[in-house]
Write a structure and sequence with these properties.
The structure is a single chain. By secondary structure, this protein is α/β, with parallel strands linked by helices. The protein is 51% helix and 11% strand. An 8-stranded mixed beta sheet has the order 3-2-1-4-5-6-7-8, with helices on both faces. A hairpin with a 2-residue loop joins β7 and β8.
Length: 350
């Protein structure tokens, strides 16, 4: 009896057929192409989603003339601060760049003068990581300048380490230095017909938390050798910025001073200059593709600085040139008041 070929033999026989091989190859090509199209569509969809949400652009529409007004911008020599200074100088404001690096400040001033034709822009030394420097800046300003209309607490960083006074650097620079600066200048701000204090917070406040026991004991809101630890500390400092603005608005009620906290967007600046090399390798390509440029990032700050009719939003949080509701922890009256009182003690005001 003749034995029939088994399935394996039959399959091998088919493979020998050029037609069969060609058909299989075309099916494989079509399958790969189909999956590539699906992946490309998903990537495109994700890109559009991110551009319309997390990396959404906005434009300040305010046309107010700032002639005769004086503006302080911390960290005004680079990034969002420089872009803000450029716009306000172009509107006629007297702009003071309050920053640590004089060389960068002078370079920024030269650029702004060339672009705007303004000669009413100057540098004053300020190191937010030193309470002594903040006090010296305030004393110098109050002696040399007769008015202050807009204070923009713009400077910030993501880093690990300590300030001159032993505070965690993100808490000390991002919050406490700005807190002290604002408090020392409040009386001069009150003399303005319509003064504004704008503090750059961030959507990162959503992941922030404040442990007052730890803050009082360690003078820090978080530190550590790993990047996620000092990123958490950054989030904590941004929550402080939002709570500071919330409490400041309550304390300034009945005066001519209004205040706003701002999320500028995810912007390509020098904010992450202290992160590790491998993180920069990851961040840089994403930043080039998606992050906003500093000029776009400055738009919400400018909106809060020049837009008329937003005074009733004092104490609120702005994003994309519009007021945005914050989570309950960023407007907690009790926590905001306690943060203010603790900050007064830590900065030497009480």
């Amino acid at each position: 009896m003749e034995r029939k070929p088994g399935p394996v033999y039959q399959a091998l026989a088919r493979v020998k057929s050029p037609i069969y091989i060609t058909a299989c190859w075309r099916i494989l090509q079509m399958t790969i192409m189909f999956h590539l199209i699906i992946v490309a569509a998903l990537i495109a969809g994700l890109y559009v989603y991110l551009v319309e949400t997390l990396f959404k652009k906005s434009k300040c529409k305010g046309t107010a003339d700032m002639t005769g007004k004086t503006v302080i911008i911390t960290g005004g020599n680079t990034g969002i601060g420089k872009a803000t200074a450029l716009d306000l100088a172009g509107r006629g404001a007297r702009v003071i760049l309050a920053c640590r690096n004089q060389k960068k400040a002078e370079a920024a001033i030269n650029d702004i003068k060339k672009d705007t034709g303004s000669i009413d822009i100057l540098y004053m030394k300020l190191d937010l990581g030193s309470l002594k420097s903040v006090q010296a800046f305030a004393e110098n300003f109050l002696k040399s300048e007769s008015r202050l209309d807009v204070l923009i607490n713009n400077a910030g960083l993501v880093a690990d380490g300590l300030t001159e006074d032993g505070f965690g650097i993100e808490f000390g620079v991002n919050h406490l230095g700005h807190f002290l600066l604002t408090c020392l200048l409040l009386d001069r701000l009150k003399e303005s017909p319509a003064a504004r204090v704008i503090t750059l917070s961030s959507m990162a406040y959503r992941w922030g938390k404040i442990d007052f026991d730890s803050l009082i004991a360690t003078k820090d809101l978080g530190s550590g050798r790993y990047s996620w630890q000092f990123f958490q500390a950054y989030c904590n400092s941004k929550l402080c910025n939002a709570l500071f603005t919330h409490e400041l608005a309550k304390r300034m009620k009945g005066t001519n001073v209004t205040c706003y906290s701002v999320h500028p967007g995810v912007v390509k600046t020098e904010l992450s200059r202290h992160v590790s090399l491998w993180q920069k390798v990851f961040i840089e390509p994403v930043a080039r593709l998606l992050f906003l440029d500093p000029n776009t990032g400055a738009q919400t700050t400018l909106h809060c600085a020049v837009q008329e009719g937003i005074e009733h939003f004092s104490g609120r949080y702005f994003s994309c040139c519009a007021v945005e509701e914050v989570s309950p922890k960023a407007k907690d009256d009790a926590v905001a008041k306690k943060l203010w009182e603790v900050s007064e003690r830590l900065s030497g005001l009480s």
